[in-house]
Specification:
By secondary structure, this protein is an all-beta fold. The protein is built from 1 helix and 21 strands. The longest helix has 10 residues.
């Protein structure tokens, strides 16, 4: 079902005109389409097990909601999944507030108090200390986490043609022009080269060690393993979809240099040659954010290098990306009527 949703969601991106379903709505009555009313969000459960602890002990927060657009628990936890558990160790008696956002700007809350025996009571407006950027034993920032990657500005935001890109004379053929029946870049579920790989509405997971960074893309299930302690690229790397990447540290910024691409992918509305060269910079500016910058150059296509910037936001409610498989992928444009 996820692959079907993804293909449908991107049909309109690859076409020049909006599309509408050709088949009649089964809820239509006397020719009038009846809109479904989104059910409101509900909080079914929010409790601490146990609700009273000794100093230094843990309790488990347990919650369950229905139909939320987003759920948070404060203080100190932030965004969470609609149903879940979280172990906490408050040092003082603390009141936690679960907030669920529903359709039509609905906001509902529920509170619970964890009593810490012999401890003081936290003020209602208690604000947790901002979490510090984690670091590895070698002192480098730890980029590890699951992130929403498709945020930020710069040329190429949302897959649009970057206005700052200058093509070399005779390279106009590399500009992608989609016809009205083109289902779009992501309809075939093939790999996306960086930085285009970050421009989809699915999470990305960074897994860092002292010697490498692994980048795991939920869509379309691709990955890169980037060594950070090797001398350089192979002399003549075989062309691949994701290229050959090596990393190095410049202060607290991880710089990833990638060559060895094949010519089957596109970036922000442009095809490229096997001479594509991408330099990415990952900087964890705070606990919840990784700043991302990519410089793109191709001596056969672009007159000068150009940049894309993004902001990766930590998903504290997730500990891994999910599996994504295009098991029944097909061109869904035939089910839609063009105007």
């Amino acid at each position: 079902m996820r692959s079907i949703f993804f293909a449908l969601a991107f049909v309109s991106i690859g076409t020049a005109q909006p599309v509408r379903p050709e088949a009649p709505n089964p809820e239509a009555t006397s020719g009038a389409i009846q809109r479904r009313v989104a059910p409101p969000a509900r909080i079914n459960e929010f409790e601490a097990r146990p609700a009273s602890i000794q100093a230094g002990q843990q309790t488990v927060l347990v919650w369950s909601t229905e139909n939320p657009n987003g759920v948070t628990i404060e203080p100190g936890i932030g965004r969470v999944v609609p149903r879940g558990t979280r172990a906490v160790s408050p040092t003082v008696t603390t009141t936690y507030t679960l907030t669920a956002h529903g359709p039509n700007n609905q906001v509902i809350t529920k509170e619970l108090t964890v009593t810490v025996a012999g401890g003081a009571t936290a003020p209602n407006a208690a604000v947790s200390e901002p979490a510090k950027v984690p670091r590895l034993e070698n002192g480098k920032p730890d980029l590890s986490g699951v992130y929403d990657a498709g945020l930020g500005g710069g040329p190429g935001r949302g897959g649009a043609t970057p206005p700052a890109v200058k093509l070399k004379p005779g390279a106009e053929k590399y500009r992608v022009v989609r016809g009205p029946n083109d289902p779009g870049l992501t309809s075939d579920c093939m790999p996306l080269a960086p930085p285009q790989a970050f421009n989809v509405p699915y999470q990305v997971q960074l897994v860092q060690s002292a010697h490498s960074l692994a980048i795991l893309h939920e869509y379309p299930g691709t990955f890169r393993i980037i060594p950070t302690d090797v001398g350089g690229h192979p002399v003549d790397p075989d062309p691949t979809w994701m290229g050959d990447s090596i990393g190095r540290w410049e202060g607290d910024t991880l710089v990833v240099d990638t060559i060895g691409f094949n010519d089957k992918t596109e970036i922000s509305g442009f095809k490229h040659s096997e001479a594509l060269h991408v330099v990415e910079r990952f900087t964890r500016s705070d606990f919840k954010t990784v700043q991302y910058e990519a410089t793109i150059e191709d001596a056969n296509v672009f007159a000068e290098p150009w940049k894309i910037t993004r902001r990766f936001t930590l998903r504290s409610d997730l500990n891994k990306v999910d599996e994504f498989v295009c098991e029944h992928n097909e061109d869904y444009s035939k089910y839609f009527k063009k105007e």
